[in-house]
Amino acid sequence: MKYLSLFLLLSLLCLNSVFSQEKPDKIVAYQAWLTTTNGTELKGILFFANDEEVILTDGFKKKRKENLIHIHWENIELIKLRRRGAKTEGAIIGGALGIGLALLLTHDITDSSSFFFGNIDRATVVLGYAVSFAAEGAIIGAKLSDEKKQFYFNGNEFAYKNQLSKLKEFCLVREQENLMTENN
Predict the structure, then answer these.
(1) Separation between Cα atoms, residue 168 and residue 98, nearest integer Å
(2) Under a CB-based contact definition with an 8 Å cutoff, are residues 130 and 103 in contact?
(3) pTM of the full predicted structure?
(4) Contact 133, 94 (CB under 8 A)
(5) Which of 28, 46, 63, 68 fits 32 for a cystine, CB–CB 3.0-4.6 Å?
(6) Residues 151 and 75 in one domain
């Protein structure tokens, strides 16, 4: 028993040092819908932005870097951004909250309870509530997480330069040096 206690104590000490290491910052990809001044809409991941242009990937795949689209600031009317996977994450969280709410509401139901459709056992009622509340929670969660950040430029240099620092926060590559190493 002493050896088991000693082993568990040493294991906990080792785990403490493993979890105390710094984790690298996770770079989040943002889906971009860019409308040009002539009305064309381009879709892709926001890859990079500098003083002259915005660079998008061609499509929503994060690893697709061979087909980059370069758009000069004069040609940009509007950029809409949404975090990649936000809608799915919102639906999962909403569905889980819906199931939890259904379990709370059906906690006091007994097998002998009478319902609108007659006598139904508790498991069927709980399952019915859980499925319906999970579906409603998933729909509400997906809608709430579908918020898009919008940047209006209308081909205006002042508007572009004014919002550039905020736009760079959403880029996949945040610095020029990183862009050069990514392309090589």
Answers:
(1) 36
(2) yes
(3) 0.64
(4) no
(5) 46
(6) yes
